[in-house]
Amino acid sequence: MDNKEIISDWFEKYGNDIYHFLIYRIGPVDAEDLLQEVFIKALRGFNSYQEKSNPKTWLFSIARNVAVDEIRKRKVRKWMSHIPLEKTNEPETTISPQSILDHEEEHQTIYRAIKQLKSNYQDVIILRGIKELSIAETADVLKWSKSKVRSTQHRAIIALHEALRRCYYNE
Amino acid sequence: MSKQDQNELEDLLKDMPKPDLSKRKRNEIHHAIMNSNNSFSIKKYAAIFGAVAAGFLFFLLIFSSTNTNNQQAVMHTYNDIVKGEISVIEGATEGSLYSSSDQKVIDNFHETIGSMNYKKTTQESSVFEKTITLYNNDNEKVTTMTFTGENITTIDGKQYKIDEKQLNQFTSEFFTEKYKTNNEKKPSLKEQANKVLTLLANENMEALANQVHPEKGLLFSPYVYVKSNAVTFSQDEITKLLEDNTVYEWGTQDGSGKPIELTPREYFDEYVNASAFSNADEVNVNNLKNRGTMLNNIREVFPNAQTVEFYQNGKEELAWESLTLVFEDMDGSRKLVAIVHGEWTS
Question: In what residue span(s) does the RNA polymerase sigma-70 region domain sit (chain A) (predicted)?
Answer without folding.
Answer: 11-75
